[in-house]
Design goal:
The protein is mainly β. The chain contains two helices and 18 strands. It has helices spanning 219-223, 227-233, and strands spanning 8-9, 33-34, 54-64, 73-83, 88-89, 95-101, 104-106, 117-122, 128-134, 137-144, 151-159, 164-171, 176-189, 195-198, 206-209, 234-247, 253-254, 261-273. The strands form four sheets. Strands 3, 4, 5, 8, 13, 14, 15, 16 and 18 form a nine-stranded mixed sheet that branches. A five-stranded antiparallel sheet has the order 7-6-9-10-17, with no helix packed on it.
């Protein structure tokens, strides 16, 4: 990432009066002049663009952890700025993103991969206000008070002849849609004392799912073990899947003419036994 260098100069001009044997010096001081931030031709920097040429994207997610976790639920957010070419740009210091929840302000705490900014461990309150500032002025402001309800009754079925697995669940909202990814298969060895973690050869990630869902890949293609081979080599196996639920009927409120795009989701980790 190229770093922008901001310059602030203070110019001191001194003039001397002369003639007539006057030893008194007359000094004049110019007022400090602010120099505009310099972006140059770095198209990847947000300061290169007018606010009209950028679109803010805010993502807010509530995630369910495994049963027994000290934090059964957690919320986090992320934000990017997108230019007219639908490319993400790097945040310059003149552009600030902020989340306010129940009167408490949150700023990005770290960046995992540029140019995305991350808000971690947000409070699980019912309301979030999202802000984009340019040079301290509000450019875009939105309000969120509802999240997708998620899904329940997660289950799986296996078919020996086809070596396929089918996932099923029930969405709490009729207008919800899902995306999902198979995380891993955890199998207990026949001695019952140790286990083996099997990760997908192909992530089998789908941007749109409906229940029931059967991946295009067989268990053999996913984990290098067919269902028969799994039963021969292990005492038991269970599979863990992450489901992302969104709901297009939930519409955040935009308070400013410059709209921001807000993406809301409920993330749930689901585990079910194959045998």
């Amino acid at each position: 990432m190229k770093h922008r260098i901001g310059l602030l100069s203070l110019v001191l001009l001194a003039g001397c009066g002369g003639g007539g044997g006057n030893d008194n010096e007359k000094k004049s001081i110019e007022q400090p002049k602010e120099v505009e931030p310099i972006c140059g031709d770095m198209v990847e920097m947000s300061c290169t663009y007018n606010v009209e040429d950028l679109t803010p994207h805010f993502g807010l997610s509530i995630e369910d952890n495994f049963e027994g976790s000290q934090k059964p639920l957690r919320a986090h957010g992320s934000t990017v700025l997108e230019n007219t070419m639908s490319k993400h740009v790097y945040f310059d210091e003149i552009d600030k993103m902020k989340i306010v929840s129940e009167g408490v302000e949150f700023e990005p705490d770290f960046i995992t991969s540029f140019p995305r900014q991350i808000f971690s461990d947000l409070p699980l309150n019912s309301t979030f206000e999202l802000y984009w500032y340019r040079n301290g002025d509000i450019v875009s402001h939105a309000y969120v008070d509802t999240f997708p309800a998620g899904m329940m009754l997660f289950g799986i079925e296996t078919e020996y002849e086809s070596d396929q697995i089918t996932f099923s669940w029930h969405n709490k909202s009729d207008s919800a849609s899902n995306a999902g990814e198979i995380l891993y298969l955890k199998c207990i060895k026949n001695d019952g004392l140790s286990n083996k973690m099997l990760f997908p050869e192909d992530l089998a990630y789908q941007f749109s799912l409906s229940s029931p869902y059967t991946p295009n890949l067989t268990l053999k293609e996913l984990f290098d073990y067919s269902l028969y081979e799994l039963e021969d080599n292990f005492k038991s196996c269970e599979i863990t899947v992450k489901i992302h639920t969104t709901d297009n009927n939930i519409n955040p409120i935009n308070y400013t003419n410059k709209k921001m795009k807000v993406h809301l989701e409920r993330v749930q980790l689901n585990t079910a036994s194959i045998f």
